[in-house]
Fold this sequence. Notes:
Blueprint: E1 5-12, E2 17-26, E3 29-35, H1 36-42, E4 48-49, E5 55-58, E6 60-65, H2 81-95, H3 98-114, E7 117-123, H4 129-139, E8 142-146, E9 148-149, H5 162-175, E10 182-184, E11 187-188, H6 196-209, E12 213-217, H7 221-231, H8 235-241, E13 249-253, H9 259-267, E14 271-274, H10 276-281, H11 289-294, E15 299-301, H12 306-309, H13 314-329, H14 337-351, E16 368-371, H15 384-390, E17 397-402, E18 405-409, E19 412-413, H16 418-430
Parallel strand pairs: 1-4, 1-5, 6-7, 7-8, 8-10, 9-11, 12-13, 13-14, 14-15
Antiparallel strand pairs: 1-2, 2-3, 5-16, 16-17, 17-18, 18-19
Amino acid sequence: MSSIRIIRGKIVNPYDIINNGAIVIEGDIIIAKGTFDEISERYKTDNIIGDLRSLILPGFVNTHSHAVQTLFRGAADDKELLDWLEDVILPGEATLTEEELYASCRIGYAEMILSGITTTNDMLTGNHARTGMQAAVDSGIRARVGKMLMDRNVPLQMLGKTDEIMKEANELAVEYPKGGRIQYSFTPRFIITCTDELMRLASAAAKKHGLMFHTHAAENRKEGDTVREFTGKGYIDAMDHLDGLGEHVILAHCVWTDKYEQNLLRETNTRISHNPSSNSKLASGIAPVLDYIEQDMILGLATDGSPATGGHDFFLEMRLATFLQKARHKDPKALPAEKVFELATIGGAKALNYDNIGLLEVGYKADIVVLNPTHPSAYPMYNPISYIVYTATSRDISDVFINGVHLIKNGILLQDMSRYYEIADRYAEERPFENRI
Length: 437
């Protein structure tokens, strides 16, 4: 019984709440769930985390991120998407050293964990993919991670030949297969930087390996106009013709879709990642989230990258997701807190094709967030889900477990990040994306 740990508090699942509850974890699995009285009677241990007032949540599932872009935070503010890419992001990604890339990813993943994100769906860049994969391994996060696939319209430092790009991608898919804490995903950036051949090969490889195909789509009107010039089609229609839709596919953004394209997404069971803060900061627009929900599409929330949002704050994403839909539809009932919490947990898990995370249930992975709601903003608390969505912040997180590993204890990340912070400070001082390329 020495490996048994009990987490005590109010259990808050998307579909049920247990007052004075308890979760029991052993290894990386939840082995029991119930009231604290029955759990403490059944499992005799002093290893108890939390108390009567704690809130116990499933870890948040981040359906689209770019930890590799963390070193560019604050360097690309107040720009439109394509200028943002061309001025800072592409030259920055193209010239990151291995040391800088590793530090950028470690800071990004740490920030996610401190925000209660226990799973992320992350895009690297074209270079140093194995270093980025190792950063995910070392961070302790659960993730689908992919080398950014690009074979046109990018700086020469990251431009690859299609066959060589796919060779490395397929090797990584074997090294990080389906089922592990870190799984590879096939991540072409978007149509503008990928030939038709690369898109089709990546989708086919994802199916072959049982992994996901993850790309950007229909994010910005100017981007959509460029895609139409390239293909003669709307973005989602073009993805369909490139074999880029299906239940193995998750598309980030999908802000600009018409009814025809929404039908394509629904009929192909394509997953959607909603990025409210990124779409707001880059002025891309407000995604038609209620249309997707009304059509029973599989949808999750996401933080995108730090230069697009300011950081990985999942409480902000939940809040913006509901506020933007209420404002867009002029309806205070639009996207209520309960639905947002569902999208942040089990919705994201379904969008990434996981069947063992996103809920606090026996047999599920021990990916758990514990809140300690003692800040004045926590009083009074009529509804814990309302509090989580509309009021709570990362400051309220006391403990985080991923795969049963205790990564945040009493609000402190149990990792030494000082070396990576030093690299980030030096990078910001030198601004090498301006002169290396």
